[in-house]
Design a protein that fits this description.
The chain has 322 residues and is of the alpha/beta class. The protein has 11 helices and 12 strands. Helix 2 (43-53) runs parallel beside helix 3 (69-78).
Length: 322
């Protein structure tokens, strides 16, 4: 599991402009507002810097020698390593066509020169916030991702309350993708998300937390008392709902036929759930989100060794080493 970024680190903004006076003006104002800044004199220099410094956002002038801002944006969007870098275009023109050209190449926002420094700072802050919110949410389920899961656990540690972490995934999920394809596989994932979400709401206050950390893996953070009723609702509901996602013949006979690498037909039972649980209570305290997630993941592996849907709980009493 990926931990959330260090929030003490200042955001690094790459300013790309061939006019040194404008670049310096932007740099000074951004530094005054708590940003770190790296400057590039044109698009070619920016392409070199972006891989060296890994900025959090780029402010790019449209009109530049060697490589224009529009072409720079196209190249950044075409590179998988920089495809999601937030970009704000600077233009000296206010024509609608220029704004459309910038946005159509992949820019997130634009601002017309001459501009007010407060507006630029506000646009940068808003774009960074939107980008972080997008990265922290699974595009498939709309649920919070890894960074948000870490923050939720850290907040419970800060409050000193007892809590439980359940790591959930779908057994034999690969067989579903192999036989039916990824589109049907996504239906199984979204079905599990809905079942878990309904169960999280049903346990009431204090609110339990549900995160989707990728693929068919989900995490629930709740009080120890909420865990049993939550799983007693979610697991059978998912088993019933997932049966209906199979082709009728496969659902009736209780298995699907999967070809192995040698072309031989193997039978794969219908999906179930494996749940690994770790508690932070009493003298078994976890102060680091990575520790309790690792233990819950370890318990999930134990659950997978058992038939059917199974919940494996960590029963150790001593705290993990720090």
């Amino acid at each position: 599991m990926t931990l959330e970024p260090d929030e003490s680190r200042r955001d690094l903004i790459m300013v790309v402009d061939d006019d040194p006076d404008i670049a310096r003006f932007v740099e000074v104002n951004l530094r005054l507002h708590g940003f770190d800044v790296v400057l590039a004199g044109d698009g070619e220099e920016a392409l070199e810097l972006v891989h060296q410094r890994r900025p959090d956002l780029a402010v790019v002038d449209v009109m530049m020698p060697r490589l224009s801002g529009l072409e720079l944006t196209r190249r950044l969007r075409a590179d998988p390593m920089t495809a999601v870098l937030p970009i704000i275009m600077l233009t000296a023109k206010s024509m609608t066509a220029d704004k459309v050209a910038g946005l159509s190449t992949g820019a997130d926002d634009y601002i017309v020169k001459p501009f007010d420094s407060a507006e630029l700072v506000a646009r940068i802050s808003t774009t960074l916030r939107r980008n972080r919110e997008f990265r922290e949410v699974s595009p498939l389920t709309g649920l919070p991702g890894n960074a948000r899961v870490s923050r939720e656990i850290a907040e419970r540690v800060r409050k000193g309350a007892d809590y439980a972490v359940a790591y959930i995934d779908i057994d034999r999920f690969k067989s579903v993708n192999d036989v039916y394809g990824f589109v049907r596989g996504d239906e199984f994932i979204t079905t599990l998300a809905r079942c878990l979400h309904r169960a999280v709401l049903a346990v009431g206050d204090p609110p339990a937390f549900l995160g989707h950390i990728g693929g068919d893996d989900f995490v629930v953070v709740c009080t120890p008392e909420q865990l049993k009723p939550l799983m007693e609702q979610a697991i059978p509901e998912f088993e019933r709902a997932s049966d209906e996602l199979y082709d009728p013949e496969d659902a009736r006979r209780g298995y699907i036929e999967v070809k192995d690498r040698r072309g031989k037909i193997q039978r794969a039972a219908l999906v179930t759930l494996s749940v690994g649980v770790a508690f932070s209570t009493g003298n078994r305290r976890f102060d680091d989100p990575r520790q309790i997630i690792a233990v819950a993941n370890e318990m999930k592996a134990v659950a997978k060794s058992q038939p059917g849907s199974f919940i494996a709980t960590d029963r150790r009493l001593t705290s993990p080493p720090r």
